[in-house]
Specification:
Length: 223
């Protein structure tokens, strides 16, 4: 069995043994959690997929809402979570106004690999609106590689990807994402993201990460 990795240098889509493949999104969960307060009252994970991050947030927040537009993913998340997990699982589009999400109510809003499924500026604006004054928005996202710097990072990422995969394999825990999870290629570049962030969430810190991801952290100014 082989797994496809993202297209390298815009033309070459290498194939790696699936055993060396792993979940790039979950890889950034520890990083993301370190950006958040140790304890918070309310947290929201947007595009929660099978719910791994929401379960981690539940260990540090009194109440967690986790929303995903795909009913199958919310079913997976519920099934993986057990009855005592303090997460309210919600099926729906975070951009629609029929979900019980209260603007300005969340100490923490997270979105991992989901922002690129939505129109960038409206989605960034919606996520920012949901954060309470003084709260934190933390995003791990995908971007479209277009520049020389993007290509250079991809060249570094490929051997590093295999090395991390080998470590997972040696520990007996290869971690691929759920096969039913909706995925799509990113259409927005880092430049698009920086411009949108400057307008919508001024002061946000946006960084390119090694494994085909960027991170964005924004603290909403206290009222
Ligand atoms: C690539 S998956 C990532 C899932 C999860 N965050 C993870 O890291 O494993 C993107 C998820 O975002 C969800 N999604 C896409 N658009 C959405 C929207 N408008 N509202 C809520 N969820 C959405 C998809 O259904 C999908 O489960």
């Amino acid at each position: 069995m082989v797994a496809a990795v993202p297209t390298i240098l815009g033309v070459w889509k290498p194939r790696l043994p699936a055993a060396l493949w792993w979940d790039h999104n979950a890889h950034y969960h520890p990083w993301l959690l370190r950006r958040l307060p140790a304890r918070s009252h309310r947290a929201l994970d947007v595009g929660c997929g099978a719910g791994a991050l929401a379960r981690r947030l539940a260990a540090r927040a009194d109440r967690v809402d986790a929303v995903d537009a795909a009913p199958v993913m919310i079913e997976r998340a519920r099934a993986a979570s057990g009855p005592t997990t303090a997460v309210r699982w919600l099926v729906g589009d975070v951009l629609a106004d029929d979900l019980p999400l209260q603007a300005g109510a969340y100490d923490v809003v997270t979105a991992v690999a989901s922002l690129h499924h939505m129109p960038l500026r409206p989605a960034l604006s919606r996520l920012a609106d949901l954060v309470r004054p003084g709260g934190t928005l933390a995003v791990v996202g995908l971007y479209r590689q277009t520049t020389l710097a993007d290509r250079a990072v991809e060249v570094l990422a490929l051997p590093a990807n295999a090395a991390v995969g080998a470590v997972h394999l040696s520990r007996g825990r290869g971690r691929l994402a759920d096969e039913d999870m909706p995925v799509q290629d990113a259409t927005t570049t880092l430049a698009d993201l920086r411009a949108a962030a400057a307008d919508v969430v001024p002061g946000a810190r946006l960084r390119r990460r090694l494994f085909w991801r960027y991170t964005l952290v924004w603290r909403r100014p206290a009222a």
